[in-house]
Amino acid sequence: MSQPTFQLDDSDYWANPLREPPSTGAEDVEDPAPGMVIAAPKRVLLGERETLPVVVRRTCGGEESALARFRDCAVLAVVDVDRNELFAGYAKDRDKIRARPIDRSEIDLEATLTERHVLEARERVGVPWRPGKYVATVLLREKVSNRAPIEMARTQYDDPDVVRFLSSQSVVGAPAGVWPPGHDPLPSYRATPESPPVPKEHGVTLVAPRVVVLRPEAACVLRGSFRLRVGAEDLVPGDADAARDYGGAKAIVPIHLLVMAAEVGAPLAYTLRVPSFDVTREGDGGVATGHFAVDLYGLGRPGPRPETFFLYTFSRETMSGPVKTSTVTVDMLPPGAPDLQPRR
Q1: What is the pLDDT of residues 216-233, one digit of tens each?
Q2: What is the pLDDT of residues 261-290, one digit of tens each?
Q3: Is the pTM of this model over 0.85?
Q4: Apex CA 144: angle with CA 70 and CA 38, to 5°?
Q5: Which residues of 33-62 are buried (b: 16+ CB within 10 A; e: fewer)?
Q6: Domains and their CATH numbers in the chain
């Protein structure tokens, strides 16, 4: 599928990223479709540039623009595909305090607004300045942009002998261990009747409780099943000691979990290291399938106020989500409400 460019050449992203595309002379020009669209330079030469611009166009109604402000809610996520690393954070500097509460009577419900933003990925989320293939995405609560591929290179000319030499110098050792460590009953890394189905294509299938009552003993169990590409660095060595040390797993798969609050709190990223007991070898790596179940509240307790969270996962080229889970407080329950709370 072709990627949006906003009719920008690679050099325009640094020279004039918000320039209007040249007029076609047509009188009837279609308005942008609702949603978020991003574009980024296809190739960045590290010796010639110092920044990594990503251009965003967001089109939405007046109510959505006012109640889900881009500055307050948007998150930029960039994945280093080769190393399977995630870099994520707020897309813009947030306003610490709104000037005043939003007056809904002042919102033009009939309006359709288009915003344009330039995000500097190196500054915003700490994208490392090194060669590799990257994928950028902008998230705003449950709204997701297209995913923009970016290649970063040291030189314009790719000398095939240099590429082969650098590839030959890579040293692959045993992968890091499982995290969070398995325990009875949670975290669990085996299929259970509650596990969602393994996706037919590469990706992660997620399920989570839709609403959890905030009590000290409350649990919020995120269950996932996956089919993901793994590299040589993820494979467990085939000797008997490794099989014992890794509990019989054939690969340890990094899956990045991004937790975004609708209102309060910075996005939180956790790298789950999930064992796979089923790997189909392909080239130096393979395709791994497996399952996990973790208590989100074991990773980090939510704040004391009601909140809705949007859960996304990333692993190399793949992104899955969002899945929503919300918290409510005990005093929000109606009198006589049954106690059906999941517990740890």
Answers
A1: 888 999 999 999 999 999
A2: 998 778 999 999 999 999 999 888 999 999
A3: yes
A4: 75
A5: eeebbbbbbeebeeeebeebbbbbbbbbbe
A6: 1-19+30-155 (2.60.40), 178-344 (2.60.40)
